[in-house]
Each structure stands twice: as structure tokens, then as C-alpha cells.
Design a protein that fits this description.
Chain A has about 250 residues and is α/β, with parallel strands linked by helices. Chain A is built from 8 helices and 5 strands. Chain A has a single domain, classed as 3-Layer(aba) Sandwich (Rossmann fold), CATH 3.40.50. Helices cover about 40% and strands about 10% of the residues of chain A.
Amino acid sequence: MTVLMSEMTWDEYEKKVKDSVIFLPVGATEQHGYHLPLGVDFYQIEKLSELVAENVNGIVAPTIQYGYKSQPHSGGGQIFPGTTSLSAQTLILLVKDILLEFIRHGATKFAVMDGHYENKMFLAEAIDLVLKEANRDDIKVVKCCFTDMLDEEVVTKLFPNGFPGYDLEHAALIETAMMCHFYPNLVHKEKIISEQADNLPRYEIFPQPEGIVPNSGVLADPIHGTAASGKIIIENLVKNYVEMIETEF
Amino acid sequence: MTVLMSEMTWDEYEKKVKDSVIFLPVGATEQHGYHLPLGVDFYQIEKLSELVAENVNGIVAPTIQYGYKSQPHSGGGQIFPGTTSLSAQTLILLVKDILLEFIRHGATKFAVMDGHYENKMFLAEAIDLVLKEANRDDIKVVKCCFTDMLDEEVVTKLFPNGFPGYDLEHAALIETAMMCHFYPNLVHKEKIISEQADNLPRYEIFPQPEGIVPNSGVLADPIHGTAASGKIIIENLVKNYVEMIETEF
Amino acid sequence: MTVLMSEMTWDEYEKKVKDSVIFLPVGATEQHGYHLPLGVDFYQIEKLSELVAENVNGIVAPTIQYGYKSQPHSGGGQIFPGTTSLSAQTLILLVKDILLEFIRHGATKFAVMDGHYENKMFLAEAIDLVLKEANRDDIKVVKCCFTDMLDEEVVTKLFPNGFPGYDLEHAALIETAMMCHFYPNLVHKEKIISEQADNLPRYEIFPQPEGIVPNSGVLADPIHGTAASGKIIIENLVKNYVEMIETEF
Amino acid sequence: MTVLMSEMTWDEYEKKVKDSVIFLPVGATEQHGYHLPLGVDFYQIEKLSELVAENVNGIVAPTIQYGYKSQPHSGGGQIFPGTTSLSAQTLILLVKDILLEFIRHGATKFAVMDGHYENKMFLAEAIDLVLKEANRDDIKVVKCCFTDMLDEEVVTKLFPNGFPGYDLEHAALIETAMMCHFYPNLVHKEKIISEQADNLPRYEIFPQPEGIVPNSGVLADPIHGTAASGKIIIENLVKNYVEMIETEF
Amino acid sequence: MTVLMSEMTWDEYEKKVKDSVIFLPVGATEQHGYHLPLGVDFYQIEKLSELVAENVNGIVAPTIQYGYKSQPHSGGGQIFPGTTSLSAQTLILLVKDILLEFIRHGATKFAVMDGHYENKMFLAEAIDLVLKEANRDDIKVVKCCFTDMLDEEVVTKLFPNGFPGYDLEHAALIETAMMCHFYPNLVHKEKIISEQADNLPRYEIFPQPEGIVPNSGVLADPIHGTAASGKIIIENLVKNYVEMIETEF
Amino acid sequence: MTVLMSEMTWDEYEKKVKDSVIFLPVGATEQHGYHLPLGVDFYQIEKLSELVAENVNGIVAPTIQYGYKSQPHSGGGQIFPGTTSLSAQTLILLVKDILLEFIRHGATKFAVMDGHYENKMFLAEAIDLVLKEANRDDIKVVKCCFTDMLDEEVVTKLFPNGFPGYDLEHAALIETAMMCHFYPNLVHKEKIISEQADNLPRYEIFPQPEGIVPNSGVLADPIHGTAASGKIIIENLVKNYVEMIETEF
């Protein structure tokens, strides 16, 4: 049986909602270089949510496909055409409204699945507002960005020459690998170029100056992103997410 | 080549955005009886947008999958588990933010594709705010709910015994037919029941009293909703949408 | 004794508030052709509220004289000088604040009397927010636009050649008739012209193009709007409103 | 010819709007003792606006009949049933929306006519936001509470035993006098009682404690409020308002 | 031991918070003539809060150093460089958030110490919203502007030739005197000039016209503001504040 | 001459504002263990701003003393008494209002000095909104958290046994060292305890469970935080900040 809420009828959903963990995938529509599509952030987190939910009898809510504004240091910034972002207030209200609806339906267990680094603090605010407004003591929410859930050993193996850090892992090895596994036909392998963001100052500059991120939008080298490594990453993530759900609920 | 923005890379999108009509499908997550899934409103409008965009070289933005609160007279109301809605302010800000981003990318032609009756006025407000904030005279937006686009002759043929009106066409013949065509495996044909909302007063009552809509959530008879009639409906809609785009842009 | 809250002293109001239905008339300041004044929408609903309240021992709160933005398909649109409208957020907050105050005073029974089609969904949102914020189970609100309350038989009699539909009944027969009865000296009979909106597409276009509504702002023929038909309309409306109040409270 | 916008047709309004001063009366719905009705603050400022507009060929917009929350030191506070107030955000947005609409119509000269002391700062904020949003240099707004416009000589004559100050002039001599002149049938002369707020501390206390204002809601003695003194007050106010308009526009 | 919250560790604060009055000083960053610094409004109210808190075992929260927009009649208006103000919504939310946090910590007794006349109504709104949101009956807040707390006898002595009124006491005798006492090194005595605002109309004009306030920004004569009179003022204020706290808590 | 805006008169400020970099320190009021006071985050960033401004002829605006909600992984979370935080919307509006005021004064160069990790994204949003609203191309803003500005060599020297990472550096070595240098009398050396957050899961849990952070609120060992290391840290920071200002402006 499906774990996707959108595929359930209301009475099927009603039977599961009180006991299930509700997964809310939150992605973004954001440039991912010349070789990956704009939907990477929500494609990935939607798929991951589905895989985890299948293991824990969860429900996956319709994915939020727009996220917070891209920052130069983590997503290349708003200067790329196609990067389509929400302002802080909008994203906070959006997530807040949706979670409060699930609570009204009887849900009490939530996993907010973040697929876009810039969403982090706005999701935290939304959840905090939800807890205040719901004013109940039986609601529990876990939340993380998928990059928090990858084991260090796995990263070490994937990057034998050293890991450049999650911030620069934008349209880079990890995302390329995962997309090669999830949606190989959406990856333009011939357009993958070796790239490294070298001009980023340690502080932020507004408005974003030209040239501080590579023209492609890729922040670190995606060359070694393959379906095989994608499979390793995804299996590790799913294992850890499932463990999180089993530990917390 | 794909018309889906989420499947394009940013440079592919950049090449098309200035000349293309951007389609923004706006749906809802809402009960649709025992036989249709919660995602009907966004599944349908997403598919329709795609079919129209293919005919006019458009771009389909990621679908907004949550809409305004269900009203008893048009969607059965908020009392059904699974109906997951946004407040007015959230929906307005969401659509406003997204359209302003496309304008920033260089887009000037928009079709806001409404798949959920209750969204109507909030989309109008969002578009009005966008025009004020953009403060330019080269932006044009068309908008309609798909039910506005069906030819009367088609409706007359589909309902030989008389059309109960669009308000009650919730989880009824038209939506059942379209889903049978688009996603037959998501229709539980065995659970279709003949139903008619008879207890709705002509005024609205808050909070929604029990019993004014059928328990199933179906507001009018879906029995004659078939893939064949779905095909007729969809072809008529696509023809009219394409005509709208060609007339206005 | 007066039913107008504004004419009561606070102690007179205090004696009635707990048992009475509070009527909140919500109108608009909007063009109504060359022959009707800008205040039609609030004049009418204020008078109707008063007549109904007198029959059910109600209290009529001060009228909200500004409403939501005029739409081309129902009020001719915002392009007419004099049409003075509120944004969505403002109208929602305004109605919400006022209703919450009445609840604080001890009122539990409300009739939100809508005199302007475009207000509909924003009033629904305001009431929903009030119920959530008040968080009590003894509050009941009924709401409708006055056009919902006219009996079909009456309409059939008034339009022997067929009724063009409520959307186009703007500054047309019904409103002209009601104003001839309520405020004959505010109707410029010599300026009434036969008019019919023929150029409205079935979809909406933003910004509003010139020429899709008649220059006068009248959307359907007002010629047969007389004080006599106004009297018939008003008596029918009052009867039905009174019935609504007696049924629901 | 009428100065009331609501009585004009849109084309009559259009002819005047560019050259006229637009008067926006802002009142309140607030207790005014046992002898004056809840609508005093908007009745008075509406009438005054009309009288002034007639002298300067102005336009009087529909009155805002709800104002900011009553404060114990100036209006007795929110504890009285019938006092029906807006929150800060609502009042600011309401006035802002309305003024921006008039600017869209072509108006550039405004008089915001305040009939309720507590509105003062929120009107200032609304006007400031309007000027920022309109971003033009041909807009001019004057604003005052009517109590600012009364000549000291007049006050001295009306209060031979000394003036208690405008703060306590709530439901007291001045308002009683003006209402006796404007709406004698709404004044319950037999219920006028001599009263003086003696227990108000110089600081404010939240929530408002019982007993710091007289039970009647009257803050200073209304006994000598007569139609004759009302006439004197009103003539003085109108003269000074007209002078203000002539000086500033 | 310190009364400043910012100097306490969290466990020191925890021990005091339930029984102590929390003082929240709210100032402004605003021009104060050629002789006083921009921080006058928050310097003064911070110092006063400290002196009062020391007498009543209170806690002084970190000072809000930005206040509401300066008005010509009370602070010279926004036209002076350096005057750095918050909009209404921001100030209301800021004070509301902070007070709700203290309530979460267990505090129930509050003194909102206003050092800037223009803050008055926005602080009232913030406190009202806090009480509604906290929805408890053990919270008590007192609030006043320091000018409300000065005894008339003291004022009479300080201004033997008559007091021009608090509105014009901006960068004038009282503030100069207090700053000479509190921060003598921040007073440029040589730049004090005798000044009197004579051109202010009794109504307000937007945008602020040039020349209605003195070029210096001083609204009344500061010449006699000395450390000695500052001491008298401050002692009187502290005495009255302490009395307020002892009376109310 | 002072670099503190609050100590300048308006005409002194006016002379400098167009050419100077405006430093806006943004801190927080947050628990910092048993040995450091609640004001650490704003004390430090205020002092650093002052030192940097002195080197580049800047202006330091009054410090924002309240920041975004403390997160368990970086500040111990909101469960500690004394941690007094702003919601997202409030912090964004606050910073936005203040920066827009400086722009109105003629400033074009800004350094937003972040002293509290949790502020990061909300400051980014505020600055983005400011740039959109100002709509000018001569505004430049740099922004960073002070921890971004410390040289790796310095960190390596200070932590010979390995650096636990900035997230856990809360009330730990770096902050203790800086406070020992800046405000030795506010450091309770006798209460410093060796502590390490070991129970933090890699994901976030709402509401915050008991026991995931040490009871003291210290997240990593502060034992080796001395005035001497504080001096090294501060000198390194000031050097790097000055370099940033000189590079960017």
C-alpha cells in the first residue's frame, strides 16, 4: 500500500494518521549546475522520505517544492535564473499551516525532512510556532537536513582525497550521485564539469558580487558522483533515518 | 523536451523563460470521497498544465499542492481528515513570492492554473499584489479555474439529465472522469457511490454543522464518471486553454 | 427602540448583547454605473440588516463601508475612479477584530451580512480565524451574500426574459430596484442606460484590459429596476433572512 | 450638491477628485456614559467633516466607524461592553489601504479627521506608510484630532471653573454639547450625571483594575453640555478646520 | 549585587525572576539638539530603571534602544539625520516577544519604562497583545513615560516662568538637566542655545514641511538645565516610581 | 572622538554618515553557563564593533541586544531561564527597519556584526528585504558571525587537543576568554566547570527533551579560556574585520 498521502483516500488516511509518523519533505527549486535539474532538492528528499516511510509505516505528505532563498556559500545564491525561492515569512507560515492541519487530523508524530540547507532555521521557527499554537504536550517533531544523517565513515570512503564540507556540496558529488540513482534520466552526464568554489570570502556580501561562485553554479567537484555511490549514500541515509524514527517514536 | 521546470537545468530554463508562458498549477490536498485520492486537485491541474504547455511551448512550474480551506458548499468543508489547507495570508504570500521570482528571472507571461475552486480570490489578490510590487507594464497574467474553461455543449452532453452546477461537482462526475483518464490506478471504482448533497442551506454556517454534506464527502453523483468522458473533458479543456494562451499572448 | 448599536448607550447594549443576534453588515465603496452612487453596496446591506434585525430583536453593528477589490466579472474591476477597496489581509483582520470584540462583550450569535460579492471568501477566512482564536464551542455565525437569499420564483418573475446571472447583476436591475425603494433620491433615473457586458472572457486577465466591461460600469440591463420591484425583492429577502435567523438560533 | 463620496456616482467623483481635499473621518465605537450612544466618536467627526467639506468644496469619504482600543485615561478603557476596537495593525492597514486607493484615483490633498484620541499615533503610522509606498512628492496630508482645533478662548468660556483637560473630556461637556446640537434625539438628558474621574493613577495598569474610572464611563462632568454650547464649539471648530484647509492647500 | 539582567548568570536570574519586578526600559535613538547625544532617550530611562530597581529588588532587562518614529510636535520629527526609528508593527512585536519570554521564565510583575513619548500607544498595544496571548490572570504590568511621573511642584520650581508643556520638552531643560547629572561628559554645554518651537501648527502635516521646528531640533529652552536640577528631577522620579512599584506589587 | 552613534549629536553623525561604514552589532540575551552573564553575545559583538570601527573611522549603531531563539545544538536551547529571544518575524523587521533608516540618513556602507549564531539566516533575510525595498545600486552590506572571522591557525593554537567545532563553542573556551579580556568582573571564574555536550543527537527534536545538553548550559570545555587567550582571539578578529572592511569598501 502507498505511503503517499496524496494517493490515499481520506478514509484510508484517517485510519493511519493517529499512529503514523507524518513525513513532510521540504525542498527547493534551485540551480544545480549544468548537469542537474532545478528540482534536485525536492526530488531527493521526496524519494528519501518515501523510502523511510515504507520502513516505518509512515505517511508522506505532499512535498513543499519551494524553499528559502539560496545563499552563495551553500547554493550559489539567488543570481541564477531558475532559482525560485520563498521569503522567510512565507516559508514559516507555509510549514506552520500544514503541520497544524495534520495535528487537527489527529497526528502527533512528525518528521520534517529538509532537503535544502537554507531552510533549516525557518523550519525550526515554524515548528516552534506550531508547538506554541497547538499548546499540547503530546506532539513531537524531529527535523534534520539529510546531510546531517550521513555517517562519517561513508563520507570518508566517498571522498578519499578529503571532504570539502557540506556547505560546498552543492550540485557536487553527493547530489550528483543520488540523482544518478534516483533519476538517472534527469542527469546530463556529459555536462558534468570539475569545479571548485575558490573565491568565496568567509563573510557574506550583499548584493552578491559577480564571480564569487563558479559560473556553472557547481560549488565542488561532482565528477565522482555515480549511481553506485548514490546507492551507498541513500542506503546509509535510509538506515539512519529509520533508526531516528525508531529511537524517537 | 520537457516542459517541466523542475526537470530543466538552470541554463535550459534561462533560454526559454523570457519568451515562454509560465504555467503555475495551484491545487489542494482535499478529501474527494471514498473513491478518489487526496491529491486530485493538484494531480489534475498539473497534468492539464503540462498538456497545454506542450502545445504552446510553455514552462510548467512546480505545482502548489496545498490550497485554501475547503468550504462545505464546494469541497465538503474542513471537517474531513486529510483535507490540509492553507490560511489566506499564507496562500497569498506563497503565490506572490513565486511569481515575483519568475519576474526576476525575466518572465512576463503567466498562466495561473487553478485546480481548486476555493483558491480563486486568494490567487486574484496574490496577482494584484505582484503587479503592484513589480510596478512594470509588461507583465500579463491570465488565471482561471479549470471549470471555467469547459464548453457548455460538452457539459450538456455529459449530463443528459441536467448539470447540478460546478459547486456540487466535487468528487463527482467530472473529477472522477478526469482521474479515470489521468490516473486510473488511483481511482477505487468499487467504492464509487451515488450521492447528492441535499442538506446544504443557501447560506453558510460556522462552525460547519454535522450532516449538511454527505458522509462520503461526494457532493454530486460520480457514477457516470468514466475514462471515456474524462478524455472528452480533457481534450475540450486543453483546446480552450490553448486558445486562451494564443489569444492573450 | 433602535436596533442600531451605534445609537444605543453601552448599558442598553449590555442588556441585549448576550441574547441577541449581532448583525455585521459588510459592504463596499464601488462604482455602480452613472445612475447609482458609490455607496450602494453598504447602503443596501445596512438597510436590509436593519429590517431583519427589527424582526428578530437583533443588534446591527456599524457597517463596514469598504470591501474587497472589485473584480471585472462581478463589479467591473478596480479601474473605475471611486472604487475604493481593501486588500485581503486588511479586510480579514478588520472583520476578525470586530467579531472578537463582540464575543468579548458576551455575544455568541452572529449574522455576517455580505453586500458585495467579492467579500465572500475573506469573510469566510475572518470567521474561521475568529472561531480558532476564540476557541469556544458556543459561538455560531451565519453568513451569506444577499443574492444567495433571493427566491428563484422572485427572480423568474422579475426577469421574464431570463436572468443573466448574479455575477452580471452589478448596477443592474436588482440593485437599481432596491435603491429606488431604499434611497430614491440617490438614483439618477435619467442616467440609466441599457447595457450588457458582452466582452468578458471566461478567464481573468491581469492587469484588467480596457474594454472588457462597458464604460458605464453597468454589467447588465438596469432599465426595469423600479421601486416596485425593489419592494418585492426586499420583502422576499427580509422574509428569507428572518427564516434563516429563526432556523439557526 | 452632496460632499459625501458615497452619494456620488463614480463619474461625479472623478470630476472632483483631482482638485478636492479628501476628508477621511475616523471615529470609534466606544462607550460614552449612560447618556450618549456608542457611535458618538464617528457621528461627530462625520458631521464636522461634512460641514468643513461644504465650505471648501471637499469630498467626505465613508467614515471609519471603528477605532483603536479605548484607554482608561482617555476613554474609560476596554472594559465597557459596547466598546468595539481594532488592534493597531488592523487600523494602520485599514487607513493605509483607503488612502492609497484615493491616490490611485488621482487625489493628492487629504485631511484625516480624527474623532477619537486613541487613534492618533496609528493614523500617523498609516500616513507615513502611505507616503513611503506612494513614493511621490505631490501628496500632502493634514491630520488632527478635533480637540486640537478648539480655540482656548472658547474653552475658557465653556469652562468658567477651569478646564479639566482633554484627556478627561470623555462623554463630558464637549461631547455632550456637540451631540445635543448634532443629534439631540440620541442624547438621554435624563441620564446625565455629574461625574469626575478621581481614581486614575498617573501611570497605566494592565489589565485595567476595577474602579479606576467611574462606573458610568463618564470621565468629567457633562452637566453643562447643551445644544447652545455645542453650537459654539462646532462653529469654532469648523472655522478653524476651514482655515487649516485654506492655509495648507 | 547587580540589578542588570545582562550581568546576571542564568541561575542567578532564575532565583530572582518569580518574585521580582522586571523593568523593561524602552528608549529611542533620536536627535536631541546640538548639545545632547542621539542616545538620550535610552540612556536616561536605563539609568532611571536601574535606580528604581535597586530600591525594589527588581531586574532591569536589556534596554530597547530604538523607538517609534519621532513626531514634529514632540521630538522634532524624522527629518533629522540620526533619528533612527522603528515602524509600529516592529516595535509592537519586539516588546511583545520580549515580555512573553519573561512570562515563560516565570515572571509576573512588569514595569515597562518608557523614555520616549512616541512609544506610548505602541507599548500599550504590545502589552494588550501579551495579556491576550498569555491568557493568564496573574500577570500585571505597569507602564508610563517618565514625564508622567514628575510631581507638579517640582516642575513649578524648575520653571519659575511657566512650564511650556511636556510636548515641547524635547532636548530642553528637563533632558539637559538629567543628562548633566547622569552623563555630564556627553553634554556639549557650549552648544546649548536658547530655542523655542514657535512655528508648529496645532495640526500635523505630512510630509513634515521645512521650518516648522527649529533647525537645532531643540523644541524649548534648555539653558537652565543643570546637573543640580537634574538631581532634583531624578530624585523625584525615583521616589515616585518606587512608590508606584510598592503600591502596585 | 567616539565611534558610538549614541554618543554623537545629530550634526556630528550627519558629518560622518555618508562616508563611514555603519556597524550594526546584533547579539542575544542567552544563558552562558554558570560562569558567564546573560549578555555575553551582545557585550562581545559591541566591543568588537567598537574596536574595528575605531580602526576604520566607522560608526557603531546601538546594539540589538535580543536575538533569535537559542537552538540546543548551538546555544543550549530555549529551556534555560534568562534566554530571551525574538521570533523570526520580529528580528527580521527590526534589522530591516533600522538599516532602512540609516539609508535614509545617507549611509551606503554597512557591516552587520553578528554575535549570535542563531541570527545568521534572519539577518540575511532582513538585508535582502532592505536591498529590495531601497531599490538602489549603491548600497553594500557585509555580514558575518564573529566565529567566521577567526583564523584557523589561531584556533589550532588555542585548542592543542583539537577544536570541537564552533557549534559547541557556547559558553566555552572562546567566549570565556573574550569575556575575561573585555569584562573580567563579569566572569565567575570559580564557577567554571569542565563540560562537554555528549548527548546531542545529530537531528533536532521539538520540544527539546531534557538532558540532551549539560545542565549548566555549557556545551564545551571553558577551562582554558583566559584573558590572555582572549586577547589573542580579539586581536585576530579585529585584524580580520579591519581587512574585510578595507577590502570591501
